[in-house]
Design brief:
With 279 residues, this protein is α/β, with parallel strands linked by helices. It is 24% helix and 27% strand. The longest helix is centred in the first third of the chain and has 16 residues.
Length: 279
Amino acid sequence: MSKLFLGFAVSSYKDSRNNLAGPVHDLARMSQKVVRDHGFDRIVTRQDSSATATDIPAIVSAAMSQVPDNSLVVGYWSGHGTRYITQADGKLRLRQAIVPYDYDGTQNTLIDGRALRAAFAPPPGKRVHVAIILDSCFSGAALRAVSSAVFTGQGAPKTVPGPRSAVEADSGLVPRTIGVTLALADSRIVTLAACQDDEVAYDTELSGVGPGGAFTFALLAALATGPARDNTWAGLVQEVWRWLKAKGHTQNPNLSGPAWKFNDRAFVLAGAAPVDPPR
């Protein structure tokens, strides 16, 4: 099985008011984890000014077009998330999006769930399993149909105002939110989000380790335990949730995708789990 990791993170935004300490460290830790422990043979990462609204979808689409049959693709994002209201088909709709480096307050500098879904769409006729991991605010509704401490008591929400409020602060935690959740509907895509679609995900700091996303810290901690390495998706989310609660965080991880994959399929980073046929 071929394994491809596509990772993106933004800590230093073009608008420096949106800066976060943790995302680039999250990306480095996740990249090291998949290479060292999970046998990924291709790693593509971009951060800060190389992770723009144009760059990210283009890089993902190009990589997806080249994946061989019987492949696993893991996409990872750490940075701000946001949501906004738009009109479609005569109805008002709430959209979720990730916030790339060059976000300027307008919709065309966001990457919403539809754009992510299109970029990560498995090639037709190939057995390709896609897992998307989002460490940002409102990510439970984002790309996924998947569902969504006091480390040192410091941090910030990973959120910024949607197109139209400055980064919010709550009890010293920095939220990774700028504005919603992204929804992907594909039988071969599983999404693991840092929080539910109405929650914020936090940038924080772990004593002795440094800054990072609370969710990514929790995910890496869960993956480091024996039970998690061999766990199902549903079991993994439970372990991440327990870890976050033990550290005092209020965000609830969200898992979305085909329900039948949650309980009878191993978490794909754990090894060469069978890849589902095209549907």
